[in-house]
């Protein structure tokens, strides 16, 4: 059976291993700790670059504590990194007592300190007008850099601090859905940025948030290179044989009843690579032109013919 190479698989596998740490020796544990520290530094550096090189020069404040710091930097000239750290301190203390102590927020504290330091240290290294005069490009690339950083953080069990911690507290303590809290909190900050920078800046902030979400999901879940197919047919053996011997993919079958016709059919389920979808459609059409075929999108498949499951 063939395995299709997945872009970024090595990077994703490295991040996955961090979440499933087996019992290891002191030397191995130290190596894993150093790797986590390196990744947190990379995440903080990426976020700081997004702020200094793209967001501040374009006057874009896409939510969060750093968004508030960007607005204050524009209005009264306060350093973004320093203000981000100051705003985070009471939130982190609240998170310490509310979310379960140091073990829960330790990595978040490290990230916040590094991010705040990098943000102010990088200012002299970039032109004041940023890397581009195009606000749309700045919004997109700030989302890309921030999304990669956020994905790494979540993989490590950390967050970017600030409003992310507040939203988690609201969710755990008061049952307020995280999606609603995020919408309200970031919406208020983006709204405030429209007063400081104008409505066009607020619209770019929304674009930045959207790109951030997509990139962060990609880092968390990986590239969507598999497809799941559900086939309802009266010729299950013919379709199964073609899939088994042509695509070399396993097929699962069960009985089902159509409530409209009250007829019994076979339902087949198969997982294939994205590159095999066209061939699958052709095989199903050849074996049973009347078959009902639904193809869904998946992110990852573990097992024979696909990826090995992460070690626990």
Short description:
The protein has 312 residues and is of the alpha+beta class. It has helices at 9-19, 26-58, 64-76, 80-99, 102-122, 135-156, 163-174, 178-197, 199-221, 236-247, 277-287; strands spanning 226-233, 252-258, 263-273, 292-298. Strands 2-3-1-4 form a four-stranded antiparallel beta sheet, covered by helices on one side.
Folded structure, characterized:
This protein is an alpha+beta fold. It folds into two domains: 9-221, no CATH class; 226-298, 2-Layer Sandwich (Alpha-Beta Plaits). It is built from eleven helices and four strands, in the order H-H-H-H-H-H-H-H-H-E-H-E-E-H-E. The protein is elongated and about 70 Å long. The two termini are 25 Å apart. Residues 1-7 have low confidence and may be disordered.
Radius of gyration, in Å, reads: 24 Å
Q: Strand pairing plus helix content: what structural class? A: alpha+beta
* Distinct helical segment count: 11
Strand content: 5-15%
Trace the largest sheet across and list its strands. Answer: 2-3-1-4
Number of structural domains = 2
What is the share of helical residues? 55-70%
User: In angstroms, what separates the terminal alpha carbons?
Assistant: 25 Å
Q: Assign an overall shape.
A: elongated
Provide the fold topology.
Blueprint: H1 9-19, H2 26-58, H3 64-76, H4 80-99, H5 102-122, H6 135-156, H7 163-174, H8 178-197, H9 199-221, E1 226-233, H10 236-247, E2 252-258, E3 263-273, H11 277-287, E4 292-298
Antiparallel strand pairs: 1-3, 1-4, 2-3
Helix pairs in contact: 2-5, 2-6, 3-4, 3-8, 4-5, 4-7, 6-9, 7-8, 8-9, 10-11
């Amino acid at each position: 059976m063939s395995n299709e190479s997945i872009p970024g698989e090595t990077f994703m596998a490295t991040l996955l291993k961090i979440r499933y740490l087996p019992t290891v020796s002191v030397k191995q544990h130290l190596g894993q700790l150093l790797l986590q520290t390196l990744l947190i530094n990379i995440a903080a550096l990426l976020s700081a670059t997004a702020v200094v090189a793209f967001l501040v020069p374009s006057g874009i404040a896409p939510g969060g504590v750093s968004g508030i710091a960007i607005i204050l930097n524009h209005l009264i000239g306060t350093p973004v990194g320093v203000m981000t750290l100051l705003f985070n301190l009471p939130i982190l203390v609240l998170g310490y007592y509310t979310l379960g102590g140091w073990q829960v927020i330790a990595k978040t504290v490290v990230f916040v300190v590094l991010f705040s330091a990098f943000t102010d240290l990088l200012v002299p290294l970039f032109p004041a007008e940023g890397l581009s005069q195009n606000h749309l490009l700045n919004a997109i690339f700030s989302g890309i850099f921030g999304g990669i950083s956020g994905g790494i953080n979540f993989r490590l069990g950390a967050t970017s601090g600030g409003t992310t911690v507040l939203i988690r507290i609201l969710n755990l303590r008061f049952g307020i859905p995280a999606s609603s809290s995020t919408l309200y909190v970031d919406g208020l900050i983006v709204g405030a940025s429209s007063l400081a920078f104008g409505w066009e800046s607020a619209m770019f902030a929304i674009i930045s948030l959207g790109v951030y979400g997509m990139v962060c999901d990609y880092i968390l879940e990986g590239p969507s290179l598999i497809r799941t197919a559900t086939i309802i047919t009266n010729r299950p053996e013919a379709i199964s044989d073609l899939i088994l011997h042509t695509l070399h993919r396993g097929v699962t079958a069960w009985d089902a009843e159509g409530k409209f016709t009250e007829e019994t059919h076979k339902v087949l389920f198969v997982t294939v690579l994205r590159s095999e979808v066209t061939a699958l459609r052709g095989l199903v059409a050849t074996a049973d032109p009347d078959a009902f075929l639904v193809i869904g999108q998946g992110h990852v498949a573990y097992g024979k013919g696909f990826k090995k499951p992460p070690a626990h």
